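To assess whether the prediction recovers the assembly geometry, we first specified each molecular entity separately, as shown.
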Amino acid sequence: MSSKAFKQPASLRALSIGFMAFWLLLAAFPFLWTLWGSFKVELDFFSKADWTDALTGARTVAEKGTAFTGAGYEGAWVQEEFWRSVINTSIVCFCVVVTSLTIGTLGGYALSRSTYRYTFWLLIIALIFRAMPPITLVSGYLLPFFAWNLWGVLPTTIIVLVAINQPFTLWMLHSFFQKIPKELDESAKVDGCSQFQAFRHVIIPVMWPGVVTTGLFSFLLAYNDFAVTSMLLSKDNQTMVPKIASFLGTTQTEGNVMFAVASVVSATAPLFVLVMVFQRQIVSGLTAGAVKG
Amino acid sequence: MFLKEITMAGSFALMASAAYAECNVSAGRVNIIGNEFPAIHAVVNAAKTCAGNGVEIKSNLTADHQLINLAGMTGKPAEYTSAIVANSSIVALMNEDVIRPLDDLVAKFGQDLRKNQLITIDGKIMAVAFMANAQHLVFRQDILDQAGVEPPRSYEELLAAAAKIREMGLLEYPVGGAYKAGWNLAQEFNNIYIGFGGEFFEPGSAKATVNNEAGIATLNLMKELSGYMNPDFLTHDSNATNSEWKAGNVALMNMWGSRVPPLKDTEGSSQVVVDNTDIAGPMTVGGGSVPATTLWWDGWTVARNISDEDAEATFKALVQGTSPSMLNAETAPMAVWLIEGYEPTDAAKGVFAAANSGAVPYPMLPFQGLLHSALGAELSDFMLGREDAQTALADVEAAYTAAAKEKGYLQ
Amino acid sequence: MQRSGLMQHKTFFWFFFPTATAMLLFIALPILSVVTQSLFTPHDQVFKIVESCGPFGCKQITSIDTEATDALKQARPLGQWSGLDVYLDRGHLAVSEVAAAWGASDSMGQFFKAIGNLPFYRAMSFTLTYTFVVTPLLIALGFMIALSVNSLHRHLKGLAIFFSLLPMIVTPLIGSLILFWMVDSRGVLGTGLQWLFSDPDLSLKASTSLTWVMLIVYGVWHSAPFAFVVFYAGLQTVPKETLESAMIDGATRWQQTRYVVIPHLMPLVTFVALIQLMDHFRVFEPIVGFNAEAHATSLSWIIFNDLGGETRLLSSASTTSVLTIIGVSILLSPVLVRTWRDFNAKG
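The predicted structure of the complete assembly is given in tokenized form:
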């Protein structure tokens, strides 16, 4: 919508920019605050005396001699070997996104192209599957997984995350595929392609915008999951989120909250890179005009 | 504390070869599940010195251990050959019969264990305890001096001291407490209820009896105490309470013995607070003689569904893990150890005072956990002033009864 | 549509097979076992009085006679059939308690107060409020963000997208921990609010209604990025020709949005509503993250509480899970009817 015909009037433009600024502040403020505070000591970040300590770092200066300290990062990355969790998270995310999208596009495409009534019911059943609270699902897995010696390893967690996320992926891709005109693959079929060939040669080249968006959500799910990863992974195979949670301590022991804070910032940095890399897909890929309602 | 663990691991590596001969494990599989206390890390690290020569010792120490230990010990063979439990959590494992009696192993390989480490139920040794814990008084000497009061020995004295501190304008919210709705709040109820001489159940039955004079007195006292706490007290767990303490906002609190050492560390605190933080035994209440606290132990068990060889290896490794040789300058202050040769440090005096003043252990009943959950869920209404004490306690009993019927404890 | 255009059953089967297998194994089977579990309860336990000794002395305690209980377990491994007993007990639908409250109350207000004291109905009152306040708000907010980002300059879009996604990216567990501190009466937001309302004693955490507001604001903040991304992707497919012709017809900007953009995005709105209604009905993490158990509970929180205690209530947790599924189905039925109509129109 960048063509000249759609130039906004000045007042609307000001309003829009004002709103955008307000929203960005709202969205980013807690994170920027955390980023700043991650270089302070705990008593500053969670300052019970005066909240401005978090800005000035009064206690940090008193304890460490400077207003900024990398102690939280050092503790998390060096002492607690946070990088192991980073590697585990990368493996889990990559495998979940790839598997989830592969089987999801096949299924979602089929659902959008078959007009038999059962496709509707399949979608409904998938939705009802999604209604199941993950925490119940996971506690049901424990016994069989221990019995078959599948517990604690990454592949099990990956498959579980893929399965739990399938209903959502199917719904999302189904609605995107529905927007791709049926005439495209039908004419290919008239030309003698099989359904799979039509999918392979005609649909795949134009499906990326929807797939990128869906992939983004699959990725975030795998990246942020706590319910599944905390229950199904052993300590050595922990991903980032359960690892961060383990820094927080328990009823009878002290945690180290600043390790957690530093880890949260570290965990968000790769996402920044990722969104920046994929923004071209998200932004310009979609505008290419291949997909029209 | 984390740093200490690493240096410790290093020193153990050096000792490993010596210890390996000492624990004499030749074959078998060991896999330990437990909570991630530094003290438990120390025990497991010491046990790991027995590894080598085909014996692999694995561990999974996590805060979520209670969610997975039962499933992990149910299979045949069980994934975990040992679970590290406390007197509250051993019950779930015994109820499902997944841990084995240790009498024969103790007879053969446990000569060095002290008699009071052995947890015996119905004449069978089910666990070996290695550390103790209890909640007791923590106070700020300087604030009490300014207010001109002695460290309180009863909750009544504590209320008087708190009133004085507030009146003098020393602190606005002088009392701290882990009153977070749920497990913590229920635990505070348990403590004071025991102090009032209350009984949780009808003798020999699973019928709850908390809706009585003692229960009402307990709730009223808790309400009165909460008047001297930060208004957000229902969201404060022991982490939050401790950080209030470190910030110097609190002068009196009932806190876990295991949480005291970090309070004596200037990291995240100030010199004034650290220098003046002192501890004493638990308080009594209502003129009673039993202190308003509970005693806890942590100990290890051995799984039932594993081969005798694995059980033997597990037993030997954990005997090594809790042997006098694991005590050193770094590990000794981590906990109140029940191990032979442990010299109580200053931080342990609160727990020792609790044990010596006739405090009772947290009840090891199959249905205690259900009552604890019911208390945790139903008492917040009273603390918020939405209902009176009697209604809240009736709700507790009703919630407990529904749960106990489901589990088959009540018919 | 021509008959030949239809995807045949066999082709459909092979396309759908992988995803169906994953869902059957990891969702359908567990659901079956959960339903079964909700209909059975553990056997009646046989007790015995035994002596228990430890570091703190000896005591007579009640313990489970595992041998006697084992015999029962061997005979019927599933437990004892309880039918709908667990569904109807105090922890769930509480029929007898509700009936008693109905009989004892003089007014509706009194009745609702009595009902609100039962765990299931208390959880439902928060869950439904939360769901029906958060969902429309986040859809509106997401739509506005999508429109604003879409009108930004090309180079700014990436940055705006990243920052807009932040509330969703930072794990709820830690995100709420940090926000929980910021809204503390001594934190930066808490202090700001105190200043704003000139009430130095204002504490969001100590009051039930303010806790609800805090959770709702967090819910909108956390989920708006989801709606934003979906709508933003949808905006890219708005047909330019239609917009241009509307423009030539003299439609105002508001009219363009109202009559071209919104109808085009309607299927996506349905989709977002569907997913978000469901997610909010299962609200859980904010309650734990904000330590709000005293003020607000949800069905998922009840499940968590049943599974997380020293003694786990499996039948109870299963029952609450089944009730959650039923609740979601009821909640979504209007949207589903709509989808059904769309589907038939499509065929």
